[in-house]
Amino acid sequence: MFFSKYIAVSFLLFCLSxxxxxxxxxxxxxxxxQTKYTxxxxxxxxxxxxxxxxxxxxxxxxxxxxxxxxxxxxVNGLALCRGDVSSRNCKTCVIDAExxxxxxxxxxxxxxxxxxxxxxxxxxxxFFGKIDNGNKFYMWNVQEVKNTTxxxxxxxxxxxxxxxxxxxxxxxYATGELVLGSSEKLYGLAQCTRDLSSLDCKECLDGAIxxxxxxxxxxxxxxxxxxxCNFRYELYPFVAA
Length: 241
Hints:
Main location: secreted
Subcellular location: Secreted
CATH architecture of the largest domain: 2-Layer Sandwich
Number of helices: 5
Radius of gyration: 18 Å
Number of domains: 2
CATH topology of the largest domain: Killer Toxin P4, Chain A
Largest sheet: 6 strands, mixed
CATH superfamily of the largest domain: Gnk2 domain, C-X8-C-X2-C motif
Signal peptide: 1-23
Strand content: 25-35%
Distance between the termini: 38 Å
Protein name: Cysteine-rich repeat secretory protein 38
InterPro entries: CRR_secretory_protein, GNK2, GNK2_sf
Shape: elongated
């Protein structure tokens, strides 16, 4: 079982260049195992091999899951890159995530770390195909919109449409935009890890969208980010065309 952990983090965006893959550190991380491994243990050996496989193979498709079948030292791992990220930036992000999560969660048998471009997750428990509602955090822009009621309604409309588009996409990923006025647009992104079924992806995203009032009421930008799905919206374009 993953522990239920929620945290709200306010943010201002300093890295606006889409090519600046390493301009910022991780968004957040969780160390969630109840036990630890030792440096020369069989688990450590299998984890090293699994993380190497993830960083090597994930850039080809933007997603990879791996595991070993040793019942006593089972290791399950998953890496996901944002749907618009290049193979080069994807690989760089996953390698950075591997190094950083080891530093932040030393000898933990379960951990998740998020960057703007990727997610890396591993555990001694089988989590494939299960919605992770425990490891989740919020981010938002500290600036607010003028007409909160109208904005929130249009934002929910956009994100709900992206939830459906992601559900219908083989990559479980969708982006879109919505015109707010004569000179302003709202941009959004929704994505799930591809170990989920389409239906579970939609359930995960709809649940995340339902948390909008908790994290992002009237904010000019925001995210709900979890271990199985996430969404983001901004008043400027933030994904590659």
